[in-house]
Amino acid sequence: MRLKKRRAGSNTTKYRPPRIIEVRQGSSCEGLVEPGDLLLEIDRRPPQDILDCLQASEPGKVSLRIDRNGIEIALRVRKQSGEPLGLVFDEAVFDGTRTCRNKCFFCFVDQMPRGLRSTLYIKDDDYRLSFYYGNFITLNNLSPDDIARILRLRLSPLYVSLHTTDPELRDRMMGGDGAAGLHALQSILDAGIEVHLQVVSCPGINDGDQLRRILEDVLVHYAGAASLGIVPVGITSACSNDLIRAHDKESSCRLLELVEEYQEEALRRRGDRLFFAADEFYLNAGREFPAAEDYEDFPQLENGIGMARKFIDDAHEYFERAGPVGGTCSGIITGVAGEPVIRRALPAATVEKTEILTVKNGLFGDRVTATSLLSGGDIISAIRRTRPSSREMLFPETLLREGRFLDDLTPEDVREETGINLTAVEVNGAELFRTLSKPKGLD
Fold first, then answer.
1. What is the torsional sign of CA 41, 46, 47, 52?
2. If you average pLDDT over residues 173-178, what whole number do you get?
3. Cβ(200)–Cβ(233) under 8 Å?
4. Residue 314 and residue 316: Cα distance in Å, rounded?
5. Is 170 exposed, middle or buried (0-12, 13-18, 19+ CB in 10 A)?
6. Is 2-89 a domain of CATH 1.10.238.10?
7. CATH number for the domain running over 109-305
8. pLDDT tens-digit map of 381-400
9. Which of 71, 174, 242, 252 could be a cystine partner for 281, CB 3.0 to 4.6 Å?
10. Could you read off the pLDDT of 366-375 as tens digits, one per residue?
């Protein structure tokens, strides 16, 4: 069973039969099921999510009921033990995403401006999306049946927002039953499930001595954790909560010193570093990023941890093979945090010939510096203000969700407004600069 990867959080409906978008070649369903079919039942039960489909792995016959263009068809599929059905679906869950009941005072979604598309305001806390997409969940909202199902199906890995190991502080930070989440975490770790933890660091609340307690507790009481990533709290211009403060150079330096201290302790106790700090802390502190080997296979890359180091190293490896880019007529669009990373990745000769358009975030405010959170309107404003000479600008594909920026504008909308073509590229140092140096008109 495979799921076509897409951005999680787009399922906001009640139960709907899942649509099959692909039937794997050579699978037991090939020739019986077709792309576009709706799966109504497996063994006489409507599937709630792909996990129900995964359980249909016993030998013998599996009964399916499908809807093909409004006509219901009953099928019997003969398969071997452990053989997947070979169906690819358009969503991971079919009964609606389970939304978060916490009231975290630092929640980024609660700080978003109004008027954006509705899916951006969904706060999921669904263990199934954690398993399939790597979404971080709190575990506060799990029922005993949910925990039992996680353990029975051995859903691994899971990604968990820890924030603190102090039950009372966790209650205050998350506005929910934080202690219940800690108990659930312990049960999941005790069962040998791979878990990656996250701490959103809020200055004056869960940093300093509190962070030291978190790191020590994870080493002692949650020693089964695979990794713990520490990321800075995000603050938008719409935030009105005085409890939330941004990290500055001083607080970032202190946090990095503490993380490095406990990395050494983790190496001594268990043989790996376990704890990792987000790239933004190194930028705030004005420090170089750790070497690639210090990230130990980058377990939290999608969380913005080690992404800069990997990008720089990939770019350097590319330039060692291909040489500096010369005479390019393309530019690069980046956010405030991304600019110094790109400049470190480019050879000096290439920097001089490459137009880098640094875009400030007008949608969420200047304190949000991540490139992936730029809107189409932000890019249009920056182009109009700076009037770049490049007629084509490259930008990371992570800015787009189903072909649209966060404000629902498209690259074509930007072209119509500015006359500049935008080309989305993979977030990879080698791929970006390979595209930058490619002669125009060639694929």
1. negative
2. 87
3. yes
4. 6
5. buried
6. no
7. 3.80.30.10
8. 999 999 998 889 999 999 99
9. 252
10. 999 999 999 9
